[in-house]
Each structure stands twice: as structure tokens, then as C-alpha cells.
Amino acid sequence: MYGKAFAPEYQGELGSVLGVNSSYDEVLATARHARRNAVSALDRARASLALAEANRRLGRVADAGDSWRDSYRSARQARDRGAMAWALWSGGTLARQCGTLPLARRLLSSAVELAAESGDRLAHGYSLAGLAETGRIQGDYEAVAETHEQLLAQARAHGESRHMVWAMSGIAQMHRNTGAYDKALELFEESARIAEAADDARGRAWSLRGIADVVSVQGDSERALALLSDAETICRDMDLAGALAYNHKMRGNVLFRAARYEDAGVAYALSLREFRDMNEPRGTALSRLGLIKSRSRHGHVDGHAPDATLAELAELEAEFKRIGLRHARQAVVAFRAELTEDRRREDRRVAQG
């Protein structure tokens, strides 16, 4: 069984006035007021943590970075290892969002250690979850699958719906990326139901995106687009900049699979602008790949030669290698092979007259 979703990143007095569905404008205003009026270093650490998380989710990278560092310094001044762990969790999550995955691992590993020393179970669980998600994003499924399962079991045992949704969605994503679509769909749908029942709008938006991805792969593009529209409404209502950008990128994926290449290019171009505005290199690179593929497929109709496309793919492969995204790098290799084979077929056709 599980209870209503809650936001452990809003701590102390902030936890009594802010919740998982609080708008980020409200979080920023409340946390700024709390930091100005903080009477202790621990109070300041908690206020700065809330500021860091709100700014991060709004895509304000510089402000998020300043805030989590202020939270850590204040927590260290207060000699509170649990608060230090939460600050490093926030910093590690921001580093992952910015594509600096080695830094994310270092910060999150330190957060795990501090949380364990402090006895803060939630900080320990969230920091472990951050490490697991970093490995999953890199495609290191074998290393992190067990951690996801363990965290899901812990979340179920303690009735923590928000963490259940996170772990379940992560496991579903690994099943989806390894071709186990039915299992992935089952898990995404369960996580969406839990999120809705727990009043976790953000978790539901991410889960709907996962469902849309799988049903699109299975051929139902119209249902996928409708699900993404539902999720987009949630993202806009809550001003979830990052989730909205990934929603638009997924819309591009759905349209591309339906061979609606021009429409897909429009969606990818939108997500590319959004990710660039947030200084989010992973999303930027993925959107660039989608845009290249869409323009290439649409351009082939007009007889466009793929030389420039191959050059762009080489640049993107280097970027994915730098960030450490195995799955995305494999997608580049696969698409380049398709283009190369297309060119060979065209050359043979021309040669045969």
C-alpha cells in the first residue's frame, strides 16, 4: 500500500507549506523568504535546497548551482550530515541534468556516504536512486538493475509512492530499451496509476511519456500523441521545463516512427530550443539526432545527398561518447549504417541505368 506523494526536498518548516505539486513560483518565493529569515545555518541549508531544486527543474542551471552549494556550505556549518547529503544529492542531480556524468557520480556517491553516516534513510535512498539513474542513462543496465529493484522494494515497504513511481519507471525504461515492450508497458501503466492515486502530477507526466513511447513502438501513434498531449498539459500547469522539453522530444520520436518526418522535425526543433535554453546537453544532443534523422528522411524524398548528414552524425557520436550515453551512441551508429546502405543501393541503381 502507499500514501500520498510528498516532497522530502522541502524540509523543516518548508515541508509544512510546500508539497509535491506546489508551483515552482510558489517554491521560489517561499524558499527565498525562508532563507532571508533563517535563524540557523540548518534553516538556511533547507531553504537553499528548495531553491536549488526549483531552479533546476525550471532549467535555471546557474541559480541551481549557486543554491545547492550554499545549501552544502550551510549544512556543513551546522554540522548536519543529513543536510549535507541532501545538498550533494541536488548537486549530483544537476550535474547529471547538465551531462557531466562523472561529476554526478562523485557527488551522489558522497551523498550516499553522508546519508548512511547520518541515518537519514530518505536521503540515502534518493542518493542511491540518483546513482542508479546515472548508470541507467549511460546504458549500464546490468550494474544498476538490481539497485532499481531494491529501491522499489524499499519504497513499497514504506509506502513511498513518489519513489515507487521513479523506480518503476526506471525499470520500465530498461525493459523498453532491451526490447521487452509488454513488460515495459505494464510497468509504465502501473506507475501512472500509482502517481495519479498519490496525487503526484510530475510522476504521472513522466509515466505517460513512457507509455506513449512504448505504444508508439508497437504501432499506435495516435494513442501515443494523445498521451503526450495529456502529459504536456501537466507539464505546462506545473511549469516543468525539463519534462516539457522531453515530452516534445518524444513527440518527435512518435511522429518519426509514423513516417511523418516534416512534423517530427518541427517537434525536434522545438525541444532543441528548449534544451539549449536550459543548457541541457543530453537533451540537446538527442534532439539534434532526431532533427538530423527527420531532415535526412524528408530530404531523401527530394534526392538530398547525405554527406552533410554523415558529418553531423560523426560530430554527434563524439558528443554522446563525451557524455557517456551508450544507447544514444548506438542509435547514431545504426542510423549511419542505414544511410550508408541507402547510398549503396542508390549507387547500384544509377550504375545499372
Automatic annotation (TrEMBL):
InterPro entries named in the record: TPR-like_helical_dom_sf
What's the short name of a Pfam family annotated to this entry?
TPR_12
Q: What is this protein called?
A: MalT-like TPR region domain-containing protein
Q: Which organism is it from?
A: Streptomyces lunaelactis
